[in-house]
Design brief:
The structure is a single chain. This protein is an alpha/beta fold. The strands form 3 sheets. Strands 3, 4, 5, 6, 9, 10 and 11 form a 7-stranded mixed sheet that branches. Strands 1-2 form a two-stranded antiparallel ribbon. A two-stranded parallel ribbon has the order 7-8. Strand 1 and strand 2 form a beta hairpin. The longest helix is centred in the first third of the chain and has 29 residues. The C terminus is likely disordered.
Length: 309
């Protein structure tokens, strides 16, 4: 006879991730008292405490830390069963939790969602936008069913599938000294080393790829500022505050409007991959398969790249 329920496991995971029954109650749509009761029933049924209690805060003890990944996995399997045998079969709404890095979520994913809405209107997507590290963590902890990241990735426990190829370009304001110098001939590494650079924060996929592409050539650079938003960097560069290396898909509109220029350099062209990530060995429900097909259709329409030529 089973002594626990999926609802109790859902409450346990919510409390573990939020640190209190008050916050967990909002996540699982129960009252605080019902949430506390479900957690108490779970611990009684298992015959062991799962949390250290200190005031209103609850922290996992050693037993709870062992149980959490197993509980998350069971809930994930239950969600997959629902999608496979009820929602998809009945053609009623199925919700996917997708996490995407900032550039992808803002500029590439809307096309995917449009394709998905046409082919599978019953599949609805709840989107979380964060940096690449946070997206990978969300997939690892089962907070997201699938992730879209910048870069190929090197994440333990995740399967990484290349998706789109994206070009990185060096940009500046039209009247920035680097851009003015580049009107005569492509600028070299000496000029780029001395220029003030605006970069993404550590943990960003763009930052990692830019460092990998540029530092072998520049050896060093002058970083004047770091920001958590590529859009903010592009706007600051347009104001003449420095230069940056950003996704072409992100700066395309600003380049066409004349607010930014692509700086010709002596460096080779720089590319990176946008990738699809999911937990290793995860079974793809029909809804997830539909989402991946929409991603593949967008890649085919783009020729596999975000900038051609």
């Amino acid at each position: 006879m089973l002594h626990l329920t999926l609802r109790q496991l859902e409450v346990f995971c919510a409390v573990a991730q939020s640190g209190s029954t008050v916050a967990a109650a909002e996540v699982v749509a129960l009252s605080q008292s019902a949430t506390s009761a479900a957690l108490q029933q779970l611990e009684l049924g298992l015959g062991v405490a799962l949390f250290e209690r200190g005031g209103k805060r609850l922290a996992l003890n050693d037993v709870g830390r062992v149980m959490l990944p197993q509980a998350l996995s069971l809930l994930e399997q239950a969600r997959n069963l629902e999608q496979a045998f009820s929602g998809h079969a009945a053609n009623v709404p199925v919700r996917l939790r997708v996490a995407a890095s900032t550039t992808i979520g803002t500029y590439a994913l809307p096309q995917v969602l449009a394709v998905l809405a046409c082919s599978h209107p019953h599949v609805q997507v709840d989107l979380q936008v964060a940096n690449t590290r946070e997206v990978a963590q969300a997939v690892q902890t089962l907070e997201a069913d699938m992730g879209l990241i910048e870069g190929a990735g090197h994440w333990l426990g995740l399967d990484v599938e290349p998706w789109l190829r994206d070009e990185l370009v060096i940009v500046a304001a039209p009247d920035h000294p680097v851009a003015v110098q580049a009107r005569d001939k492509p600028v070299g590494v000496g000029t780029l080393r001395k220029a003030p650079w605006l970069l993404r924060e550590p943990g960003s996929g763009t930052r990692e790829v830019v460092e990998h592409a540029l530092l072998p050539h520049l050896k060093q650079w002058s970083v004047s500022s770091t920001m958590a938003s590529s859009e903010a960097i592009a706007r600051c560069v347009a104001q003449g505050l420095g230069i940056s290396c950003l996704s072409y898909v992100l700066v395309e509109a600003l380049v066409k409007s004349g607010s930014l220029v692509i700086v010709p350099t002596t460096l080779p062209r720089m590319w990176r991959h946008f990738s699809i990530v999911q937990r290793a060995g995860k079974w793809r429900s029909p809804a997830l398969q539909a989402f991946v097909r929409a991603c593949q259709e967008v890649a085919a329409d783009e020729g596999g790249a975000c900038r051609l030529g």
